Fold this protein.
Amino acid sequence: MSKLPEAHKFVDLSDYGRSIARQIALTLKDTSATPVQVTYSFVVSGIMAIACIVEGYYFLAAFFLVLKSILDAADGELARIKNTPSYTGRYLDSISDILLNAAILYTIGFITNASLYWTVLAFLCIQLQGTLYNYYYVILRSKLNGDTTSRIIEIGIPKALPGEQQSTVTFLYKTYRILYGAFDAIIYKVDPNAEEGSITPNWLMTIVSTFGLGFQLLLIALFLIVGLPEYIIPFFIGYTIMIPVLIITRIAVRTEK
């Protein structure tokens, strides 16, 4: 089941691996494999990418980064195909993402001798970019009656869905809030009325999708392949200037309607 109706599907530059992810999910459809197990597999892929970066195997690192993105999409696809949505999977996915992002940026900073200050700043920038993308995307899905395990504002412990434990959902939710709460609050503060007005046009969502984690990992992979890992941290810091540009554009589009 697609997250969006046909008329509102946009070219999601962060979701380039969706077709492969769906094939993986279809392959696992009639097996005992669970979406959470697929999430664990993308964690392993991310760890492999980090190990390859440390050892200087940049092409192999790029492969595992792209594979991580594909598997990151496959867990959600499998949940939809098996009709087993869960807050456990939703929060575990996000928690795994942010921890891997921190590890990947730290590793890149380590091999390029970047200062810890710039490395941390790049991590914060990547997370803010990804939060803006997710914020607008979840709003779009909510307006169009998409799936609801991702909430526009993650405030309040959700009630566990069938097949999952409330204690697990509560723990993962609290962990999510610790890791993402500040980023969510910042983005909501700068555009608190994003839910109001017209639906974000497809062309703008395509531009915003360059902030998606899949596209971020693809860019990191490309920098590694061309032998320019030292440009990764300054690039993501500089690209953050697009956050206010896109927010202003979104507000202008909403106002016009």
Residues 116-143 form the longest helix (28 residues). DSSP finds ten helices and no strands in the chain. The chain has one domain: 6-256. The CA atoms of residues 125 and 240 lie 6 Å apart.
